[in-house]
Every structure is written in structure tokens, then in C-alpha cells.
Specification:
2 copies of one chain form a homodimer.
Chain A (H helix, E strand, L loop, with lengths): L15 H34 L4 H8 L3 H13 L3 E3 L5 E3 L1 H23 L4 H11 L5 H13 L2
Helix pairs in contact in A: 1-2, 1-3, 1-4, 2-3, 4-5, 4-6
Chain A binds a DNA duplex (30 and 30 nucleotides) through α1 and α3.
DNA sequence: GTCCGAATATAGCCTATGCTACACATCCTG
DNA sequence: CAGGATGTGTAGCATAGGCTATATTCGGAC
């Protein structure tokens, strides 16, 4: 048995278990993404208009309303939201807490991007995807960096 | 008909179509993520070991080998890879091009994160998720920022 | 050359996330 | 207060991306 030779490594690669970990974490972040986005959006709608209608949520997410209904059902299942039939959607305490965390993260990511020279519009758009993959450590570094250049 | 009043806006919200666009783009990026990651990993394996075995791909992605087989089938379907049964996996020209783009993006993201103070380990981990959401505009800004502080 | 273990592939199942089409409620208008 | 527009919910379908369990094939040891 060739005893797993480390390969002719003409080119560095990360250690295998560390790499698998990274991908697993990225996958997990991806699956949390949707609920986070919905929670944030619903919180924004509640704050700005007083109510969150499924049709508004759907329009703003850019999906069919049936899709929004299903995702809201999942939010309810996970204890993040409540809704009575034909009334709007509301967030539980947990839902609000999640939305607050996500929003803070989003703002910081946008600020950081802008600080390094990304146009505001692009920063907003990219932040929508990036925010879900920013670890606490990275977030802290962002805050420190922004602080330092004020 | 109340003519869609802009809502008591106690709190700013993005324009609705722009926001939907952002979410759509984020969703699209998310669905491209997997293929990009696989292409990059396979390219790395080919470069460092000379061959990419499905078992290695699976181990490094942190998934069951059956999952890797399925995703590789999708790569083939999309014209990014080729594979003969029981031989390794190879990338087409398109696959290599994709891998190169992804790799360049990955490196730049890591560099940027490190430059603003993120520990290398965390930068590597977060970049795995972030890289798929960085637009060309943002990428260019990153490059400019790094250039400027050299 | 045969046989066994490792690698590979297939099959079948599950959940998440989209969609369209259809059914039912609500509410505003006249 | 009747009726239609609009909002809401349900049903059924598709694909992506996980998994486990079960073949198959390959390749090296003997």
C-alpha cells in the first residue's frame, strides 16, 4: 500500500479536514441565508409601514407569492414569526433578534465595502450575499478597521 | 384606490424593484456557488496531484461520495468537466476558465480581508462563502484598495 | 490467475426552494 | 349590499443538493 503519499504538490493545497470544515460552514451559512433575509425584510416592513403583507414580501424578494407563503410557513415552524390567516406576518422575539443581528451585519458590511472604494449601489447589492458569510471574527475586524480610519 | 402611498416611512427602505433585483442576484450567485467550488477544487487537485478522484473531491468538500458523484454529473451536464467511468475527473476548457476566475477572486478576497485585519484562518474560511457574491465592480475596488496601500 | 478491499457508481429517499394554477377571503366601489 | 379586483392560501410539480444502502469495477497481494 502506497501509504498515501502527500502528492507531488507542485502547488499548495489546504489541509483536507480544514478545507472540508470550511465548505461545511459555507453550506450551513447558505441554508440559513433565506430565513435571515426574510426576517430582515419583514422587520423592515414592520418598522416602515406598520405591517408586512405576504404580497409585499414576495414582491420585494422577487419571488412568487406562493414561495413567500411557504418560506413564511418555515419561519413560523422555526419560531421566528407568527401570522394569522389573511392578517399580516409578525416576528417573535427570536425573529426580531435575528433580524437585528442580520441588519447590523448588513450595515457594517456595506460600510466596509464603501470604505475600500466600492460604489454604494454595488456595495448594497453584494452585501446582500456577503453578509451571510461574515463570521464574528471578520465582523469585529471590519468594525476595528472602520473605527481606525474615522 | 390609495395610490400606493409611500408608507409612513419612519425608517428608510430601498426601492422595491431594486431590492428584488438584489435578492435575485444573490439567489443566482448562490446557485452557481456549488459548481464554482467544485471546479476550483478539481483544478487544484489536478494541479497538485495530477488527478482528481471522486473520493478526494468528496472528502475535501466534506460530503458523501454519492453527493460528489451527483455534482460532478452536473458539472459534466453543464460542459465544465469530463470523466470516464472509474477514471478521474477532468475539466474542459470552460471548466478551467471558471476555476481560474474563481481562484483569482478567492485570493483577492482573502487578501482584502487580511488587509483590513481579519486573521488568516478566518479570512480563508469566510472567503469560501464570500467569494461567490463579489461583483466585478467590488473586485476591482478590492484590487485598487490593495494596490493603494502597498 | 484469483480474490478481496477500496474506489466508484446507482438507486431511492428526504428537505429546501422555486414555479404555476386554482380556490377562497377581504374589502373597496358603486 | 353586491360584485369584482386584489390579496391570500393550497395543491402539485420540478430541480438542487444532501443522505444511506446496495451494486459494481478495479487493481494489487498472494
Amino acid at each position: 500500500m502506497p501509504e498515501k503519499q502527500p502528492a507531488p504538490s507542485s502547488h499548495d493545497m489546504p489541509q483536507e479536514p480544514a478545507q472540508a470544515d470550511r465548505f461545511c460552514r459555507a453550506r450551513q451559512a447558505r441554508s440559513a441565508t433565506l430565513l435571515e433575509d426574510y426576517a430582515e425584510l419583514i422587520a423592515d416592513l414592520l418598522a416602515s409601514g406598520g405591517e408586512a403583507r405576504t404580497v409585499d414580501v414576495a414582491r420585494r424578494m422577487g419571488v412568487a407569492h406562493a414561495t413567500a407563503v411557504k418560506t413564511i410557513a418555515r419561519l413560523k415552524r422555526e419560531g421566528l414569526a407568527t401570522a394569522l390567516p389573511y392578517r399580516g406576518v409578525f416576528l417573535t422575539a427570536a425573529g426580531h433578534a435575528l433580524a437585528d443581528r442580520v441588519r447590523a451585519r448588513h450595515r457594517l458590511v456595506v460600510e466596509l465595502l464603501v470604505a475600500v472604494g466600492v460604489p454604494v449601489e454595488d456595495a448594497e447589492a453584494d452585501a446582500e450575499g456577503i453578509e451571510h458569510h461574515v463570521s464574528d471574527s471578520t465582523l469585529a475586524a471590519f468594525a476595528g478597521f472602520l473605527q481606525g480610519r474615522k
